[in-house]
Amino acid sequence: MTVQNRLLLYTATGLLAVTAVLYITANPLPIWLTGSTAESFKYTYGLWKICRLEGSTNICRNLPSKVDDKTMSMRAFITICCILSPLSVASILSILCINEDLKKKIFLLAKGLAIATLICGIIGVSIAISVVVENNKLGGKMGISCILAIIALVLNLAGAITTFFIK
């Protein structure tokens, strides 16, 4: 493997590893949407929990298993990203350890996983932004989890493009 290919391999691995960490961090945090009510309660809404800050006490409760379609879609696509992105990192790293006969197949797998993660991320983050825009009229603002997912999506795009330059 040439020096240029190794550099691209490490670059793609680094980008996709950071992407995996960001998706995995954004998924469980209950801070996809933030806002406040007229009674001066502050709330945060996540994929799995909703929290309300009363004074200095933060009260969180799990969302029911059946919620609106947008939340279920966000859960599904972001969770798929949490599964596929580490697999894409593992497949790219395995290229360093395998023989020449399997490299082309693993390259295809790595590229496919990176693209699949990108597609799922685009869908999940688009739905999240849609929910934020709908709730913006009610005083809702984008939370840190949504911002992390957007950054993950941008890095995922860069990592997917980088994998296509590896030979």
Mean pLDDT: 87
Oligomer: single chain
Report the sheet with the most strands, covering strand number, pairing sense and barrel closure: 5 strands, antiparallel
Quote the distance from N terminus to C terminus.
Answer: 9 Å
How would you classify the helix and strand content by structural class? Answer: alpha+beta
Q: Provide the gyration radius in Å.
A: 19 Å
Give structural notes.
- The chain has 167 residues and is α+β, with helices and mostly antiparallel strands.
- Helix content is 65%, strand content 13%.
- It has four helices and five strands.
- The protein has helices spanning 3-26, 69-94, 100-136, 144-165; strands spanning 33-36, 42-45, 49-54, 57-62, 141-142.
- It has a five-stranded antiparallel sheet.
- Strand 1 and strand 2 form a beta hairpin.
- Helix 1 (3-26) runs antiparallel to helix 2.
- It is elongated, with a radius of gyration of 19 Å.
- The model has no long low-confidence stretch (mean pLDDT 87).
